[in-house]
Amino acid sequence: MKEKIMRFMQGRYGVDQLGSFLNSVLLVLIIVNLFIGSRLLNLFLLLLLIFSYSRIFSKNYSRCYAQNQWYLDKTSGIRKAFGKQKAYHEIKKDYHIYKCKQCGQKIKIPKGKGKIIVTCPKCGNEFQKKS
Ligand SMILES: [Zn+2]
């Protein structure tokens, strides 16, 4: 059975970033439609499902690749913003971020060092902070 599936999937496009995005959208909308029961949404879901699966089983690589590139291009801003947000939260785990009252420079201070004197690298302003 597994071999049959593998043979069937050979040379087919499969799931890319757009594919997994479509699947997440489908899942969310299916759950939403459980509550609102819209026929229009049902029809839309069916079309989306067909589109999504036609891409997964497609042998037309270049068309699917182009669609995925279009998706990546359209969402690059959003994905970059999420990436930045994530990086910021990573930093916030180990550091405090203070703003210099004199020049507005943001200063990163490691957490758990007790009371410290912070010297602004930009204007030399000194202030005391608890880290
Ligand atoms: Zn400063």
List the helices and strands and how they pair.
Blueprint: H1 2-9, H2 17-36, H3 39-56, H4 61-94, E1 95-99, E2 106-110, E3 115-119, E4 126-130
Antiparallel strand pairs: 1-2, 3-4
The structure holds zinc ion.
Task: Characterize the structure shown.
This protein is α+β, with helices and mostly antiparallel strands. It has two domains: 2-74; 95-130. The protein is 61% helix and 15% strand. The chain is built from four helices and four strands; from the N terminus they run ααααββββ. The strands form two sheets. A two-stranded antiparallel sheet has the order 1-2. Strands 3-4 form a two-stranded antiparallel sheet. β3 and β4 (126-130) form a beta hairpin. The chain is elongated and about 70 Å long. It starts with a helix and ends with a strand. 4% of the residues are buried. The structure holds zinc ion.
What's this, in brief?
This protein has helices at 2-9, 17-36, 39-56, 61-94, and strands spanning 95-99, 106-110, 115-119, 126-130.
Percent strand equals 15-25%
Radius of gyration: 25 Å
Instruction: Indicate how many domains the architecture comprises.
Output: 2
Share in helix: 55-70%
Cofactors, ions, other ligands: zinc ion
Gap from first CA to last CA: 60 Å
- The helix count comes to 4
